[in-house]
Design goal:
Blueprint (H helix, E strand, L loop, with lengths): L7 H19 L5 H4 L7 E2 L1 E3 L6 E2 L4 E4 L10 E2 L1 H20 L15 H19 L4 H4 L2 E3 L5 E3 H27 L21
Parallel strand pairs: 1-5
Antiparallel strand pairs: 2-4, 3-4, 6-7
Helix pairs in contact: 1-4, 1-6, 3-4, 3-6
Length: 200
């Protein structure tokens, strides 16, 4: 009896849904105190705009950053990681799937945990919505990346997936460090999954 194997496009969709559904468990109950907690004396964060604050964003708040990056590189707050993920998820989607050319300074940075998480979750929903339209014929089609190179869709999507897994794991570790112990493992709770995460 033959086994039906998933296609490349199907694997992308399943991986995103699984990783990003798990990410929302890691981010549950995140409040402003944790969001802005600075793990070291020199941490990049989300700060109110001021002459001494270097970073990007178009509004009242700035996501601290610098290019070229300083040495040593500062550690970052959970808030910085959330906004970093939200912005780059939107940029990857708009470059690769919508033919747009956004810039980090186009974004109005939210100044609290609830608004930052809302942006990240919306960015995830929109990205999965775009990937849901990917077929096997499209999976290896070349699409533009924000740094000027054209790459297969599968590479752009898995790059974004790896970025999320990397930073969400960091967020989980920072939350453990701040509370002084690892989070007690609780079996996965059923969480609502947005309808856009599934193909129609």
């Amino acid at each position: 009896m033959g086994v039906s194997l998933p296609s490349a496009a199907d694997l992308l969709k399943v991986q995103l849904r699984h990783a990003w559904h798990y990410s929302r468990r890691v981010l549950q109950d995140l409040d402003d105190q944790e969001y802005f907690w600075e793990p070291t004396a020199t941490s990049w964060s989300i700060r109110r705009r001021a002459p001494s604050v270097r970073g990007w964003g178009s509004g009242e708040f700035v996501c601290e950053d610098a290019w070229p990056a300083p040495v040593p590189l500062p550690t970052t707050t959970i808030g910085w990681r959330v906004i970093h993920l939200a912005a780059w998820t939107d940029i990857y989607r708009q470059y690769g799937f919508e033919g747009k050319r956004p810039d980090l300074n186009d974004f109005d940075i939210p100044g609290d945990a609830n608004a930052g998480l809302a942006w990240l979750f919306r960015a995830q929903d929109d990205f999965i919505g775009a990937v849901n339209q990917v077929t096997d014929a499209v999976a290896f089609e070349l699409r533009p990346a924000h740094w000027g190179e054209s790459l297969p869709v599968v590479q752009l999507v898995t790059s974004m997936l790896a970025e999320h897994v990397h930073h969400i794991a960091e967020i989980g570790a920072v939350r453990d460090i701040r509370r002084g112990h690892a989070r007690t493992y609780i079996p996965p709770v059923s969480m609502p999954i947005p309808p856009s995460w599934f193909t129609t």
